Amino acid sequence: xxxxxxxxxxxxxxxxxxxxxxxxxxxxxxxxxxxxxxxxxxxxxxxxxxxxxxxxxxxxxxxxxxxxxxxxxxxxxxxxxxxxxxxxxxxxxxxxxxxxxxxxxxxxxxxxxxxxxxxxxxxxxxxxxxxxxxxxxxxxxxxxxxxxxxxxxxxxxxxxxxxxxxxxxxxxxxxxxxxxxxxxxxxxxxxxxxxxxxxxxxxxxxxxxxxxxxxxxxxxxxxxxxxxxxxxxxxxxxxxxxxxxxxxxxxxxxxxxxxxxxxxxxxxxxxxxxxxxxxxxxxxxxxxxxxxxxxxxxxxxxxxxxxxxxxxxx
Length: 314
Description:
mainly beta; six-stranded mixed beta sheet; 18 strands; five-stranded mixed beta sheet
């Protein structure tokens, strides 16, 4: 599957287009930036694996409001393929402009950022169609509170083989958050499809895309080894055997102000080892994360090293 998910790191071209907007009651002072007024910082949006897998390219237009300090305070996608929206918004919200001065004061203004996703099509394999629109029955995948607390979200693609009767006879997750793969595959296996209008029924392949929407904002804080105030004793399950040094990554959802672990999920290793590590990880207490961002869940990981003698280090 690694070959199928190959991501082409070709730069995304960002073009800034400005236009005049009249003042509104919500934005009493809106300046009109001069032509060519570009951001001083504009990150390149990551090309989503979902778009790469189904061969989607094109432009995404994001309308933004820039505040008196040059920061983007509002951003909204006005055109472009939905698979490209989230990463375009993320990049646009991180853009920085030189503050615009008008009549001896800095003012807010409106402008438009265009991201051009091109040159990303995977030519190593045929592009499979998205088959959501062919479904007669398309059960929703389970999205548990544990998965939500782990900040699992986004598009998940499942490649399916559909037989002559319109039933799924083979399926595998091909992109998206790995914590959501099992739920998406289980839902895909229950889907049924209509055949084409012309000709006899035939087998066909396609991609089902499920969108898991987070209920709360998540902030990725990366690796959090050593950032705890309380670390319980970790141990290996007594029935599990470790034959060689092993590293296991445990994904965490953390309540930022209390430092409490809301959920823990190991992403590799034997099920007995994983489950015991998850139980131990739930008892970790972290330092409060003071980020002025409103309510959110902190998404982090810890890396655990297990030696053959059962000793665990971080």
